[in-house]
Structures are given as C-alpha cells and as structure tokens.
Design goal:
It is built from ten helices and eight strands. With about 250 residues, the chain is an alpha/beta fold. The protein has one domain: TIM Barrel (Alpha-Beta Barrel). Strands 1-2-3-4-5-6-7-8 form an eight-stranded parallel barrel, surrounded by six helices. It is globular, with a radius of gyration of 17 Å. The mean pLDDT is about 95.
Length: about 250
C-alpha cells in the first residue's frame, strides 16, 4: 500500500494570518489520522510563515501517542533546507523521515529538486549527522533518471520525485511524456537501491496514474488536499485521496 502523508502547512498558514490558535494544526492532524492517513508532513520555513517549531514538537507527541492504536505505522515527515535552525529542530524532534529540499530562504514553494553535483558538499556534510537521529533521509529530486542515482552515493535512503511538471502536463491534457519520465526515474531509483516518494500538485484526478510507479512508497500532499477540504471537509478529502491511491476504505 502506498502511504498518504498529509502536509498541514496550509492549516498553519491560515492560523498565522489571524493570530491565535485557530485553526489548530493538532486538531487537523487528528482528523486526518481518523480518516486513515499513514503520516503527517510539515515543512517549517525560516520565516515561520506557517509551521512553527512548536507545531513539530506537538505533532511528534501526538503521533507517538497514536501509534499504539493503529496496526499500520504512523510517521512524521519533516521537510526543509538543512539550515542550522532546521538541523537543531529535527535533532530535537527525531522524526521518522527527514526530506531535504533545496529551497532558498524566501521561496514560495518547493518547485525544483536538488542539483546533486553543486549540492553534493552540503548534502554529504549534513546527511550523516541527520542519520544519527534515526530518521530515514529523503532528497527532493527532479524526475531525471540520469542524475537521480547520485542520491544514493550521497547517503540518501529515498528520493521524493517532484511531480510538478507532471501535474502541469496533466492539466494541459498531455501527461504521457511526463508520466513516462516519472516511470523511468522510478526505475532508476529502484536500480540504485533508493526508496521512492512523490509529491507536489497531486490531485484526486492526476494521482491514480502514479499508483503504478515502480517502488512508490509514499506521497505527501498538502495544498490540493486542503483546497478540496474547503469543499468536502478534511476527513472526506483524506478519504478521497486514499481512494485515489487504491486504499481499501
């Protein structure tokens, strides 16, 4: 079964726009877990415009309490650029998975993967340190089967394929080439001994075609899942995405 990890950044963004504690990130996580998602993803950014360090700590506590109540494993995935603050946070929290992204400080969203050549020094410096937390390390990667194998030599356990180009091609009505590139990248990752995640702009419409990606273990979805929740409710939105992944409900 492909795991669904729900990204709660947008919940925190709404909360921060008004101040106070509503909507609650923790209450949103509880609703998502009640609907059967397998994990929660957060991406704390340097400007703290959405997820804050306290949220990450609270989510870790919540998932730790809930694990005894579920047969399937619940995971906390923390994404971010490995800045000093990010490193200190994940070392304190000890998430199940750390997904490293090459975002600049003010970047609106993660819209490209690592350049594994120019980023090699940085990644080789931080990955061994992060592995000492016990976390699985994933690297956000462009779907390029020629370069994706380099993530293994850098010490990563998985790659997360950036699915933005596929989502755009799907909207245009011609996703075949982008989908073929994802399949080739997935095969290259598997051949290199890398686990596979995917994420960015995935919807209930474009997600089913990715279910057959070789070795796909997890998708993390935030923006479009929350947008759908505005129409149908958060629990229903999670269930719809689980259905799109082929989960038995």
């Amino acid at each position: 079964m492909i795991s669904l990890s729900v990204n709660l950044n947008k919940i925190a963004l709404i909360r921060n726009s008004r101040g106070g504690g509503e909507p609650s990130v923790i209450d949103a996580a509880k609703l998502c877990l009640a609907a059967g998602c397998q994990g929660i993803t957060v991406h704390p950014r340097p400007d703290q415009r959405h997820i804050r360090p306290g949220d990450v700590l609270d989510l870790k506590k919540l998932l730790s309490r809930r694990r005894g109540l579920r047969k399937t494993r619940l995971e906390l995935n923390v994404e971010g650029r490995p800045t000093a603050d990010f490193m200190a946070l994940v070392e304190e929290v000890g998430p199940d998975q750390i997904t490293l992204v090459p975002d600049s400080a003010g970047q609106l969203t993660s819209n490209h993967g690592w350049d594994f050549k120019t980023g090699a020094d940085e990644l080789q410096r931080v990955i061994p340190r992060l592995k000492r937390t016990g976390a699985r390390i994933a690297l956000f990667a462009d779907p390029d089967p020629r370069t994706i194998v380099m993530a293994r030599a850098l010490g990563a356990n998985r790659v997360e394929l950036y699915t933005g180009p596929y989502a755009e091609a799907f909207k245009r009505g011609n996703p075949r080439s982008a989908l073929r590139n994802l399949v080739q990248s997935a095969k290259a990752a598997a051949a290199a001994g890398l686990g596979l995640n995917a994420g960015h702009d995935l919807t209930v419409d474009n997600l089913p075609a990715l279910v057959g990606l070789p070795g796909l273990a997890e998708v993390s979805i935030g923006h479009h899942l929350i947008v759908r929740a505005l129409e149908v409710g958060l629990e229903r939105s999670v269930l719809d995405y689980r259905k799109a992944l082929g989960h038995k409900l």
